Amino acid sequence: MTDTPLPFTPLIQGLPAVVPFVPPEALERRRGRPLKVRVGANESAFGISPLAREAMRLAVDQVSWYNDPEAFELRTALARLHGVALEEICVAAGVDELLGLVVRMVVEPGAAVVTSRGTYPTFSFHVGGFGGQLCTVPYQGDHTDLDALAAEVRRSNARLVYLANPDNPLGSWHAAAQVRAFLDQLPAHCLLVLDEAYVEFAPAEVFSPVETQDPRLIRMRTFSKAHGMAGARIGYTLAHRQVVATLDKIRNHFAVNRVAQAGALASLGDPAFLRGVVQQVEEGRREYQALADELGLRALPSGTNFVALEIGPPARRLLEVLLENDVFVRMPGVAPLDRCIRVTVGTPAERAAVAQVLRQVLPQVRS
Ligand SMILES: Cc1ncc(COP(=O)(O)O)c(C=O)c1O
């Protein structure tokens, strides 16, 4: 260690040493043994499309070349899929990277930013990193509270508001018409980050045609969930071309490697695979619902690939006991959401393992 102060900015020096998530690998290292069931990070249990696997295998042979920084082929396919122009799509290393870019684009130190208290934390993490002032509103009936978010935007004069739809960690959703009405409530100077990481699993009412005419609406999608490519790190934004052109000024143009780009492109060409994943997730959600009924828990309705199981105050203890039994799940960090544990839909074998451990440990945790 040196005594000379390092030239970090005061903002960075003042940041707490936190990470958005402790990864399961770190838990394994800490415990000195592997996890048996990994149903905590909302990763897909259903693999990747065989077409994606083959495309990625071939791309590995060209990995000594730089990737296409314009992700041209992938953006062309996405433009066709969503009926938008190439200039309205920005590809990046997952929604997480896009969240950081949008925050960087809009947030100056001290600027107000609005989000829901307890929602997906990576957005807030980036807001902190750029010195934004986070203004949060509570959930209402286990849903993000759109009226309260809009009111908070007006009160704080925020220029950025975050909404995950469907939401993480509870899995609840709003219909597209409600999101549209929310956007209509926002002042002209406020951008809406609409994080649609789980949209493939959502009920039909959540889907709305992608429109990129309104520069305030920045939609984000990912290949991490339904496409099963979380470790490949690839996602994209659908937005007005002025927003995309501005992201182009600051993004890491070589962030998305060629293996990921090839896999994502091939996966788009395999809609039958995607439908199969969604069906398996729906089946898994029904199974968790039945398990909850059996165990006297409440399974919150979910439009995602996970289910929040309401257990009340013993939720944290249950999480610890599950981990002691080598089952990795997560739970919301703040009240009143922290009365639930959040369990990703695993394979049938993983679901059976979760069920077995829950049956075994719940009486002890409750007593
Ligand atoms: C709401 C939400 N947004 C974004 C992400 C991360 O997406 P990506 O892997 O594309 O960075 C997650 C992952 O759990 C999520 O729950």
Q: Can you walk through the features of this model?
A:
- The protein is an alpha/beta fold and 367 residues long.
- The chain has two domains: 20-47 and 272-366, Aspartate Aminotransferase, domain 1, CATH 3.90.1150; 50-269, 3-Layer(aba) Sandwich (Aspartate Aminotransferase, domain 2), CATH 3.40.640.10.
- Helix content is 41%, strand content 14%.
- The protein contains 13 helices and twelve strands.
- A five-stranded mixed beta sheet has the order 2-8-7-6-5, with helices on both faces. Strands 9-10-12 form a three-stranded antiparallel beta sheet. Strands 1-11 form a two-stranded parallel ribbon.
- β5, α8 and β6 (191-195) form a beta-alpha-beta unit.
- The chain is globular, with a radius of gyration of 21 Å.
- It binds pyridoxal-5'-phosphate.
- Pyridoxal-5'-phosphate (PLP) is lined by residues 42, 94-96, 120, 164, 168, 195, 197, 222, 224, 230, 235.
What form results from the Cα inertia axes? globular
Number of helices: 13
What share of the residues does DSSP label as strand, in percent?
A: 5-15%
The profile of the biggest β sheet is: 5 strands, mixed
Lateral strand order in the biggest sheet: 2-8-7-6-5
Assigned CATH class of the largest domain: Alpha Beta
Heteromolecules bound: pyridoxal-5'-phosphate
Summary tags:
single chain; 367 residues; alpha/beta; Aspartate Aminotransferase, domain 1; Aspartate Aminotransferase, domain 2; 2 domains; 5-stranded mixed beta sheet; 3-stranded antiparallel beta sheet; 13 helices; 12 strands; 41% helix; globular; binds pyridoxal-5'-phosphate
